[in-house]
TrEMBL record:
Pfam families: Pyr_redox_2, Pyr_redox_dim. The lineage of its organism: Bacteria, Bacillati, Actinomycetota, Actinomycetes, Pseudonocardiales. It comes from the Bacteria. GO terms for molecular function: oxidoreductase activity. Keywords: FAD, Flavoprotein, NAD, Oxidoreductase. PANTHER family: DIHYDROLIPOYL DEHYDROGENASE, MITOCHONDRIAL, DISULFIDE OXIDOREDUCTASE. Its EC number is 1.-.-.-. Belongs to the class-I pyridine nucleotide-disulfide oxidoreductase family. This is Dihydrolipoyl dehydrogenase family protein. Residues 350-456 form the Pyridine nucleotide-disulphide oxidoreductase dimerisation domain. Its cofactor is FAD. Residues 7-317 form the FAD/NAD(P)-binding domain. InterPro entries: Class-I_Pyr_Nuc-Dis_Oxidored (IPR050151), FAD/NAD-bd_sf (IPR036188), FAD/NAD-binding_dom (IPR023753), FAD/NAD-linked_Rdtase_dimer_sf (IPR016156), Pyr_nuc-diS_OxRdtase (IPR001100), Pyr_nucl-diS_OxRdtase_dimer (IPR004099).
Amino acid sequence: MSDLDVDVVVIGAGPVGENVADRAHQQGLSAAIVEDRLVGGECSYYACIPSKALLRPVDLLAATQRVPGVEAGPIDVAKVLERRDGFANPDDSGQADWLSGAGITLLRGHGRLAGERAVEVTHHDGTTTSVAARYVVVATGSVPAFPPVDGLDTVNAWTNQEATQVKEIPESLLILGGGVVGVEMATAYRRLGAQVTLVQHGDRLLPTTEPEAGRRVQAALEADGVDVRLSTSMTAVRRDGDDVVAALGDGSEVRGAELLVAAGRRPATSDLGVDTVGLEPGTHLEVDDATTVLGDWLYAVGDASTGAQLTHMGKYQARICGDVIVARSRGQELGGRYSHHATTAEHTAVPQVIFTDPQVASVGHTEASAGRAGLSVRAVSYEIGNVAGAALQADGYDGVAMLVVDTDRGVIVGATFVGQDVADMVHAATIAVVGEVPLERLWHAVPSFPTMSEVWLRLLETYGL
């Protein structure tokens, strides 16, 4: 006998899991959600929200310095951290109350699959709850990956959790990894007063973006005083007094008061009981366009799945997952909503914003990834600073916009914007990519003057329309 019988049980109460449970419950299904840590998940307390709270003040100060006649005093670090706490104080009572008010049962503890349609929850006091469910959803997210560096387990290295919840800014910081977390935290910490050294094993920062994006972010970090070390790795680390000393593959050493490991993430599926249903622990759970893993009962969304590892894409998956479960519970066909456009959104039209200065906003293919996908493409670029809206936005505006065009179909399959305040420009590109809007039609989408969106017109002109 089970202690609890529900229609849907979701393991993981981050934004993605919450969306699945709420979507299903709003359409008439009973739902429970299991969380071992904080309701609201990594994004709310240790990633998206607190990192942007740290970055916004330093970004705003830099923007004011590019407009003569506007004065801004030095950063008040204590107030920045206080404001961060207002957004991301690790107290999840409000989130838990929301679940209760929505009619969703919250089970605090570690959830594991216990065979088909069964979940066992081990609570913090050692008691257990057995849950029987028609549908089980894995939304456990991901955890930091640690590369094989000698001594790494002895120096109390930071992950994004410590970096975003810091109580005071250290005098210096070593960062291992030049991806999104690495470059964002390098931006924030340098401008909040720390000396920063960033070590990246590859030959450029942000290796999954257009090369020009990584180049411009590197130039900006170095202009701020960040010591960027490319094409080398940390081979060993040790504590020397209050500092961490890292030996690099090129024979040099670097030191800092703290070490942030930002070397990627892995799915949190190692201790999830997936082996009880024939799946491999510690791997991404393979899903189809309906987020299904096994039969009609097991689903995965967010970082634990093979979908794009971004909160907004996880929440998109969650909406699909909730609707699919409801449709199947009613014996309904899924319809075309989860076919072509879901495939496009999940695999070839993923938007992302990197909140460095300059910002990097992108969607879809890079020129390189389009080539690997076998597409015949042409890429065009235009300096954003050459449009009137950008010149008004900031003196000496430095930024670039790039489009990747499928020449066979005459549609955009990728776009990248690099520059101050470009974050909100990417959604127009996302609509163009998902909607497969022909360039001939985009020609009639007239941008407002004087805004930075005028760069769309210049890109189409550069392409030859």
